[in-house]
Amino acid sequence: MSGVVHFIGVVENVEDDTSTILIYPEFTPGLDGLDAYKRLYILYWLHEGDNPARRATLRVVPRRHGATEERGVFSTHSPHRPNPVGLTIVELVKREGNRLIVKGLDAFEGSPIVDIKPEEHN
Is 4 a domain residue? Predict the structure, then answer.
């Protein structure tokens, strides 16, 4: 089985803890109603590390938390994984047309946006 991912936007700017996400015009209608939420799940593509070797990685040493033993990649937050999708919960500061100003996004400028979902319990 195979699937296709359509990127809906891109991380346009990152300054300290605040980021601007540009949503492509054809996906802008999908933002309607988003202003009602304070926190959002942002799914993005880890584009800088997307290569066949990293996608083949299934065991890693998660050094970020001081671990020294190898574990399965699905029990870690490693960017080396079969599908390099990142996930962050952010605070929605404001929406300006097809741009979202958010706090707490851990993606780089240029990272493609895969999806946005509201956190139901704001």
Answer: no
The closest of 36, 6, 49, 22 to 120, measured between CA atoms, is 36
* CATH number assigned to the domain comprising residue 37: 2.40.30.70
Residues 6+ apart with CB under 8 A from 119: 37, 38, 39, 40, 41, 89
How confident is the model over 66-82, as a mean pLDDT?
A: 83
19-60 confidence digits (pLDDT tens): 999 999 999 999 999 999 999 999 999 987 777 788 888 998
Q: Which helix (H) or strand (E) holds 41?
A: strand 39-45
Range of the domain at 105: 9-118
Domain count, the chain: 1
Q: Is the pLDDT of residue 16 over 80?
A: yes
